[in-house]
Amino acid sequence: MSHMQYDTLISARWIITVEQDGEVLENHAIAIKDGRIAQILPSAQCASLQAAERIDLGNHVLMPGLINLHGHSAMTLLRGLADDKALMDWLNNHIWPAEGKHVRDDFVFDGASLAMAEMIRGGTTTINDMYFYHAAMARAGVASGMRTFVGCSILEFPTNYGSNADEYISKGMEERKAFLGEELITFTLAPHAPYTVSDSTFRQVVELAEREDMLIHCHIHETADEVAGSVTEHQQRPLARLAKLGLLSPRLIAAHMVHLDSAEIEAAARHGISIAHNPASNMKLASGIAPVPALLAAGVNVGIGTDGAASNNKLDMLAETRLAALLAKVGTLDPTAVPAATAIRMATLNGAKALGIADKVGSVKVGKQADLIAIDLSALETAPAFDPVSHVVYAAGREQVSHVWVKGRALLTQRQLTTLDETALKTRGEEWRNRILAR
Ligand SMILES: [Zn+2]
User: How far is the CA of 60 from the centre of ligand 1 (A)?
Assistant: First the structure.
């Protein structure tokens, strides 16, 4: 091993591995070779190692990149356009009309690129997205270098992108073909929600997912109204209907899952589904508090997502992780609910499990790909630092994220984006603002 030439050697005061909840290595280094974590060793033993690049980070935390398990990246271009509305009013009277006027290929590319820049600067290395114009989303992913899951939205009603469920599916599958060779780009099937997708379409999605070995990403049990509407229309709650249609399996990433009874929590565990918890969006749209502690206790894999910038309005996974820990406490009136180490696992390894990539990323482990971030805890705002796990969740802000790597490639160095042009992105954002205001 001594004559091995590493690509990058990063040393830091702390490494949060996420291999065990709360495990912290002090004064250790990570050696990266060919995009993988080749060695984890005490910094004191690094002097003799050969590396093309050495990064000595000092009072930083090195940890797995954050995995945003539910988002609509291109909606950055609608950020702040309509706030303080109920979900269906917000969708029907504000978001869907604006999308109808403006969403097309370049909207998605520009909006997703802006989102990715924001996410990278906040320590997010993987995005599980759901939107339209998938080739544009995938191109933005390739250009940014982020690990990108492109969810092909499926609805029964027309949008700019498609006219019916069959067309959404066939166009999505067609756009997927060009990206099958891209290691960091994965297409998923994203039936929008139980209230926008028919039984026959859900059945078709399940068949296709099995045939093509794809994940399914769907909004489920987001609001009490959704559940009540299903009881009126289908004489059953959405999850029961989806169970009968075969949707509940380890392939499923269910976004939200706010309104659940104990039998539904048990069903989620039994079927091995994963859940994307979106605390800020649930709070902002007053959807409710997801029963995360009960889901975790039942053995359900729960990750964390930001949802779109129109309903959050930040794509800030550190803030979202803090909210997940806090909302669990206020929801149960139990200050021990979702401790900091659990919140970090949700934002990293649990997200990776949901996406079927826990063997590749989600923790700091020899052999895994180097999707890593560094957070600078030397700032005044995080002094003194007793426990880096606590600070990352409760005290640090995304402006303290100094470095981001995906598969060993630096996407952020000393707060500077390496793959995306910050000034150009802001200019494009302003151009879209003027276009949207002009109608
Ligand atoms: Zn959503």
Answer: 33
Residue type, 119: M
Give 308 Cα–ligand 1 centroid separation in angstroms: 6
Query: What are the residues facing 30 on neighbouring strands?
Result: 10, 40
Run of H or E residues at 259: none
Average pLDDT, the chain: 96
Element (DSSP H or E) covering residue 22? none
Percent of the chain past pLDDT 90, that is, above it, reads 94
Structure tokens at 23: 């495990």
For the stretch 156-212, pLDDT in tens is 999 999 999 999 999 999 999 999 999 999 999 999 999 999 999 999 999 999 999
Task: Give the distance (Å) from ligand 1 centre to CA of residue 222.
Answer: 9
Q: Count Cα atoms within 13 angstroms, Cβ side, for 240.
A: 13
Taking the whole predicted model, whether its pTM rises above 0.90 is answered as: yes
Query: Which residues have beta carbons under 5 A from ligand 1 (an ion)?
Result: 307
Q: DSSP characters for 133-147?
A: -HHHHHHHHHHHT-E
DSSP state of 348: I
Backbone torsion region of residue 114, taken as left when φ is above 0, otherwise alpha when ψ lies between -120 and 50, otherwise beta: alpha
In Å, how far are 25, 47, 70, 164 from 116, measured between CA atoms?
A: 30, 36, 13, 29
Contact 310, 95 (CB under 8 A): yes
Report cis status (omega within 30 of 0) of the bond before 313: yes
Question: Distance, CA 76 to ligand 1 centroid (Å)?
Answer: 13
Gap from CA of 72 to ligand 1 centroid (Å): 6
CA of 95 to the centre of ligand 1 (A): 12
Q: Compute, in angstroms, the gap from residue 331 CA to the centroid of ligand 1.
A: 21
Q: Which amino acid makes up residue 175?
A: E
Q: Residue 338 Cα, ligand 1 centroid: separation in angstroms?
A: 23
pLDDT category at 2 given cuts 50, 70, 90 is low
The CA distance from 35 to 99, in Å, is: 38
